Amino acid sequence: MRRRRFVAVALGLLLAGAFFWRGPEPAAPRPALPAPEPAPRRVDRSYDASVPLEALSDPSVLPEKKVRRVYELLQIYAMAVKSRSRVPLSTNAEITRALCGKNILRVVFLPPDHPSVSPAGELLDPWQTPYFFHALAADSWEILSAGPDRIAFNADDVVYPPRGGPNSLR
Prior knowledge:
Blueprint: H1 2-20, E1 41-42, H2 63-85, H3 92-99, E2 107-108, E3 132-137, E4 140-145, E5 158-160
Parallel strand pairs: 1-2
Antiparallel strand pairs: 3-4, 4-5
């Protein structure tokens, strides 16, 4: 009789344990791995630009032409990419990053290893001073090179578009 009672109690405990036991906790879902970024695409450079990109670091090219080329790069960027991205660009580093392919379309307008791009990621003028970008509108800038004395906002600065020109607010 004792044996039957023991078996009944043991069987009852097993059934109760099976009823209340849920099993091992399900594993937490694994976080999805981020999709790899596609490689930046190069822009077709077959169009006739006023100054080739190589000239930005060429000492024989006039500084005024270099500043105009940077302005043209920004205008091309604004037409092709900026209207799609809705990301405001204000600092030299932000503009340079966007021109080097860190934009919504991953289009490279300026190679990141270009000699005119500093190790800090800024676009440098002929005197190795970062350009100053002054926003005139959402997709228009005035570009200032500090000039040979490397001091911005004085008489030897090179500005494009020229102050007082049709695209300038001055």
